[in-house]
Design a protein that fits this description.
11% of the residues lie in helices and 40% in strands. It has 10 helices and 56 strands. The strands form 13 sheets. Strands 17-18-19-20-21-22-23 form a 7-stranded antiparallel sheet, with no helix packed on it. The longest helix has 20 residues. The protein is globular and about 85 Å long. The N and C termini lie far apart (60 Å).
C-alpha cells in the first residue's frame, strides 16, 4: 500500500510517490537533518517476506553503499519501516532514464561518446571495488538535467570476492509476468555467459555496455528476437547488424570499440572498464557530419587522476583511418559544439605546475609562470615554432597579465595561497626584461585594460574581497572571494568568478560594468578555473563543471545563453584567447599526499584515502585523525572522515568539510558547503547528526569545540559583512559574534577563555572570549600562521613562512615571544609540491599530520579547423 505524503519513514518525511517497480516503490522525501530532498526505495510488504527478494534488495544497498562516484547513484542510508519493510535512501535525481532518451531515436556520435565515457567511469569505480552490476540496461542508466549520467540499481550486483558459483536463479529471466519486476527486454543486454548461467564478472558488464552503446548510435537493439529463446540465441550465436546499415555517420573507431565489447568470448573483450574508457576518451573530435577530425590533446584530470598514474603528457596524433587519437589513459577528447574541430599543439613538456599563461601582443610569444621546484614561481616565455622556454625576468615573480603594449603585470614576493593563486605586491615590468616597478601591496590578481594603460585588481581589504577599477574604486565585493578578472575587448566590462566560500572554487560567473552594475550570467558550478573573452567580445569563455575531472569550456553571452565550446574527458582549463581566435589552455593533474606520525611511531605513514585528503585535527592521544576528503568520487559536498594513525580503515561520518573533533573524541563539527553553508555535528559512535542554527551566516572558514564539548566557535561571514568569529551552543540557539569584522582562523585556548585570531593584516592576536581588548602575540609577524595551542596554554604552534615548502613548525612562548623549532614538514620530492595544505598537531607537539598538494601541468595551443 503506498505511503501517504506527510508520513514519516524513520527520520524522513514522505513528499510524494515518484515510481514503482518489481524491486519496490520509490518516494520523494525530505531529510530534515540536512535540509535536502532524497529518494527512498521501499520494498513492499509482500516482497519483504520473500527471502530471495529481500536478499537482492539488501545486496543493492550494500553494493551501492560502498561506491562514492559521480556516475553512480549515491546511497545515503538504509532502514526498516514500522511495518517491517526495508528501505534504502538515495540521492534524488532530476532528469530521465536513457531508455526515455532513446525513445527519441539514435544519438549523435558526440553525445554517445559523452554518455558512454561517463557510464564507463562509473563501471570502473564499481569494478575496482569488486562489484559487478549484472543488469546494465538503458532503464538503469539515468541522465540528469545537467547532462550527468548515473548508473542505477545495483540490486543484481554481487561482490565477486564472495561470489557463489552457478546461481542461475539470480539471473533476470524472460518469463514475463511470472515474477514481479522481471522485464523481457533485460535479456537483450545479458552477456553470453549470463545466458548460459555461468558466473558474471566485469567483462559481463562490458558486454552489456556494448549492447547499450550499439543502441545509442544505431537507434535499435543489438539483440532482439520475437521470443526470449530467439533473443538468447542471438546473444549466443549472432552479431548485430553492421552499424553502416543503421547509421552512416558512426566513426569506424567507435564501431570497433562496440564490436570489441560484444565479443562472445569474454577473453576477447576489453579486460577492464579502464581500458575501455581509455579507448573512448581517446576518440578524436567528431564533426556534425560524423567524420574523423583533428587530434585531441592528451592529459590527466586535475582531481580524478590517481596518484599512481604517470604525469607525462603526450600530444595525441591524428589517426585518419582509425578515426581516433593515440595516447595514455586519461587522454581527453575535446569536442566542440559546432562543425569546427579543435587541434592541440603541446607547448610545455616538463611536468611542473603552470599557474598562469598569456599571449604577447604579437600573438606568437607565450608568457607563463611556473614553479620548477616547490611553489616559488618564475616567469618564462616561449614561441610555438621554437622548442624550449626561456626565463623572463628574475626568479620569484608570478605572472598576472600581459598588456597590449607588451608590459607585464606581475606579483613580486608572491606567497602561494590555493589553486593557482598568489598574494603579493603588484608591479609592472617590460616583457623584454628589466626591473619591476612596484605599485601596491596585498594584491592577488589583476588584468590590463585593452589599451594597456591601467589595471583592475582583486585584493582582500578588512576581510572582504574587492574588485577595484581604477585602484581604490570598488566595483563589487564579497565575503567569499573573487577570481579571474578579465576586461572585455571594448574595456566596458570585467568578467570574473564569484565564490561563496573562501578559496573553494565552486561558484558563479558574472560581469560588472565600470559603474559597478553586476550581472550574474550563470551559477551552480562545482569548479570554476580559467576565463577569457572571445575575440569579438560577444561571449565569455570559461572552464567549469561539477568537478575537476569533468570540466569543459563553455561560451556564455551577456544575455546568459550558454553553449559548449569544447568538451573533454578529463577536463581542460582555458587561459587566454589571441586576436586571431587561438586559445591557450592547460591540462593539470593535482592531488594530495597525507602523512601522519602517530604516537610511538618513528616514520611518517601515508594515510591518504583518495586523491584529495587533508588532515584537520588529531585527538589528544594522537591515535585518531579527523580529515577531509574532497575527491569528486565522494560526492558534491566533500566527506568528513576518521582514520586511526596506525593505518586502520577509513570511517566516513557524512557530508561536509570537517572543522574539529571534541576533546573526548565523541563529536565532530563539520561544514556542509551547501548554499548557504550548514554546520553539522556528527557523533563518532552511535547517534544522529545534528544541524546547528545558521543565524545570518552564509559561509564558514574555521571553527572548533570549546573544551566543555557543549559549545562551538565558528568564523564566517553574514551577507554584506566581512568574516568574524561567533560562539554557539550545540543544544540550540543562533551564533553570537565575539570578535569584530576582519578576524578569522580562530583557535580556542585549552581553558576555553581565549581565542587566538588572525586579523585582516595577518597578525596574530588573542581575544578574551568574555570580551575585552585583544593583545598581540609577541614575537610573531604576518608571515606566521597559527597551528594550535599547546596543552599548557602558555605557548602556541605556528607555521613560519606558511606559504613555503618545506614548512617550518615552531613553538612560540606567549609571555616572551621566544621561538623553538618543533618540526620541519618536508615532502620527499619538491618538484610539483606546491603547498603544505594543512598541519595538525597534538597538544604536546609529538604527533602530527599534514598534506602535500602536488600539481603537474602542460600548456597547449588550441586552434579551430573547419
Amino acid at each position: 500500500m503506498p505511503i501517504a505524503p506527510g508520513s514519516r519513514l524513520g527520520p524522513y518525511e514522505i513528499l510524494a510517490q515518484i515510481g514503482a517497480g518489481g524491486m519496490g516503490e520509490v518516494y520523494r522525501a525530505k531529510d530534515p537533518r540536512l535540509s535536502r530532498d532524497v529518494a527512498i526505495k521501499v520494498l513492499p510488504a509482500s516482497f519483504s517476506e520473500d527471502a530471495e527478494r529481500l536478499r537482492r534488495f539488501e545486496q543493492e544497498a550494500k553494493a551501492a553503499g560502498v561506491l562514492n562516484h559521480p556516475n553512480v547513484t549515491a546511497v545515503y542510508d538504509i532502514g526498516t519501516s514500522a511495518e517491517g519493510a526495508p528501505y534504502v535512501v538515495q540521492e534524488l535525481l532530476e532528469g530521465e532514464t536513457l531508455r526515455s532518451v532513446l525513445a527519441g531515436g539514435k544519438l549523435s556520435a558526440r553525445k554517445t561518446i559523452d554518455y558512454a565515457s561517463q557510464i564507463v567511469r562509473g563501471l570502473a569505480a564499481a569494478h575496482e571495488k569488486g562489484i559487478v552490476h549484472r543488469d546494465l540496461k538503458p532503464e538503469n542508466i539515468f541522465v540528469t538535467n545537467d547532462g550527468r549520467v548515473k548508473i542505477l540499481d545495483f540490486g543484481l550486483a554481487k561482490l565477486t570476492h564472495t561470489e557463489e558459483r552457478g546461481l542461475v536463479t539470480n539471473l533476470p529471466t524472460a518469463t514475463a509476468g511470472t515474477e514481479p519486476g522481471v522485464v523481457l527486454g533485460t535479456l537483450g543486454y545479458m552477456s553470453p555467459e549470463q545466458v548460459r548461467g555461468k558466473p558474471a564478472d566485469a567483462r559481463s558488464d562490458i558486454f552489456s555496455f556494448g549492447a547499450i552503446l550499439y543502441e545509442m548510435v544505431s537507434g535499435r537493439r543489438a539483440f532482439h528476437g520475437d521470443s526470449a529463446a530467439d533473443t538468447m540465441s542471438a546473444i549466443l550465436k549472432e552479431d548485430p547488424p553492421d552499424l553502416s546499415v543503421t547509421n552512416q555517420s558512426v566513426p569506424p573507431a567507435l564501431e570497433r570499440i562496440i564490436r570489441h565489447c560484444l565479443e562472445k568470448n569474454p577473453e576477447q573483450r576489453f579486460h577492464s572498464a579502464h581500458d575501455l574508457g581509455f579507448d573512448l576518451e581517446s576518440l578524436s573530435s567528431v564533426s556534425a557530419a560524423g567524420q574523423p577530425a583533428a587530434a585531441a590533446a592528451a592529459g590527466i584530470s586535475r582531481r580524478f587522476a590517481r596518484r599512481g598514474l604517470g604525469i607525462a603528457v603526450a600530444i595525441a596524433l591524428l589517426a585518419l583511418a582509425a578515426g581516433y587519437a593515440l595516447g595514455h589513459r586519461g587522454s581527453p577528447a575535446a569536442k566542440p559544439a559546432s562543425t569546427s574541430t579543435l587541434t592541440y599543439s603541446q607547448l610545455t613538456f616538463f611536468p611542473h605546475p603552470v599557474f598562469n599563461a598569456r599571449f604577447s601582443p604579437d600573438g606568437k610569444t607565450v608568457v607563463y609562470s611556473a614553479a620548477p621546484a616547490g611553489n616559488a614561481p618564475q616567469i618564462f616565455s616561449l614561441r610555438p615554432d621554437y622548442p624550449g622556454a626561456a626565463p623572463a625576468g628574475q626568479p620569484g615573480m608570478a605572472l598576472l597579465s600581459v598588456s597590449s603594449k607588451g608590459e607585464l603585470a606581475v606579483l613580486t614576493r608572491p606567497r602561494f595561497l590555493r589553486h593557482s593563486l598568489f598574494h603579493g605586491t603588484l608591479a609592472r615590468m617590460p616583457l623584454e626584461g628589466g626591473a619591476p616597478r612596484e605599485i601596491v601591496d596585498g594584491v592577488r590578481e589583476a588584468d590590463w585594460t585593452p589599451d594597456g594603460s591601467d589595471l583592475a585588481v582583486i585584493r582582500d581589504v578588512n576581510g572582504k574581497d574587492r574588485l577595484e577599477f581604477p585602484l581604490g574604486k570598488v566595483l563589487t565585493e564579497t565575503g567569499g572571494y573573487l577570481s579571474n578578472p578579465r576586461f572585455s575587448p571594448r574595456g566596458d566590462r570585467i568578467a570574473f568568478f564569484e565564490h561563496p566560500f573562501k578559496y573553494d572554487d565552486r561558484g558563479s560567473i558574472a560581469v560588472v560594468d565600470l559603474s559597478g552594475k553586476k550581472t550574474v550570467l550563470s551559477q551552480g558550478y562545482g569548479v570554476e578555473e580559467g576565463l577569457a573573452w572571445s575575440r569579438d567580445g560577444r561571449e565569455v569563455l570559461f572552464s567549469g563543471g561539477p568537478d575537476y575531472f569533468d570540466t569543459q569550456i563553455y561560451a556564455i553571452g551577456l544575455d546568459g545563453k550558454r553553449r559548449s565550446a569544447a568538451q573533454s574527458a578529463g577536463g581542460i582549463t582555458i587561459l587566454d584567447v589571441a586576436s586571431d581566435g587561438r586559445w591557450l589552455a592547460s591540462r593539470d593533474e593535482a592531488w594530495r599526499d597525507m602523512f601522519a606520525l602517530g604516537p610511538g611511531q618513528e616514520k611518517e605513514r601515508n594515510l591518504s584515502w583518495l586523491e584529495l585528503s587533508y588532515p584537520v585535527a588529531l585527538t589528544p592521544d594522537g591515535k585518531t585523525l579527523l580529515f577531509d576528503e574532497e575527491s569528486g568520487r565522494v560526492g558534491e559536498y566533500y566527506s568528513t572522515c576518521l582514520r586511526q594513525t596506525d593505518g586502520s580503515p577509513v570511517v566516513r561520518l557524512g557530508d561536509g568539510a570537517p572543522v574539529d573533533i571534541s576533546r573526548d573524541g565523541k563529536l565532530v563539527l563539520s561544514s556542509v558547503p551547501t548554499d548557504p553553508a550548514q554546520l553539522v555535528v556528527y557523533p563518532t559512535g552511535a547517534g544522529q547528526a545534528r544541524k546547528l542554527e545558521r543565524g545570518g551566516l552564509v559561509s564558514y572558514e574555521a571553527g572548533g569545540f570549546f573544551p566543555d564539548g557543549r559549545r562551538v566557535f565558528v568564523c564566517g561571514h553574514e551577507s554584506g559583512h566581512a568574516v568574524r568569529c561567533y560562539m554557539q551552543d550545540i543544544a540550540g540557539g543562533p551564533p553570537r559574534p565575539i570578535t569584530p569584522e576582519g578576524t578569522t582562523n580562530g583557535l580556542i585556548s585549552p581553558d576555553g577563555a581565549q581565542l587566538l585570531i588572525t586579523d585582516s593584516s595577518g597578525g596574530l592576536n588573542i581575544y578574551p572570549v568574555a570580551g575585552g581588548a585583544p593583545r598581540p602575540v609577541p614575537g610573531t609577524t604576518p608571515d606566521d600562521a597559527a597551528v594550535r595551542w599547546m596543552s599548557d596554554g602558555k605557548s602556541i604552534l605556528i607555521a613560519n613562512h606558511w606559504w613555503e615548502v618545506p614548512l617550518r613548525i615552531q613553538k612560540v612562548d606567549l609571555a616572551t615571544g621566544r621561538r623553538e623549532d618543533v618540526a620541519i614538514l618536508r615532502p620527499g620530492e619538491l618538484t610539483g609540491a606546491v603547498q603544505i595544505v594543512r598541519a595538525a598537531f597534538t597538544g604536546d607537539g609529538k604527533s602530527y599530520a599534514y598534506a602535500v598538494r602536488r600539481m603537474a601541468s602542460h600548456l597547449f595551443l588550441v586552434q579551430k579547423g573547419e
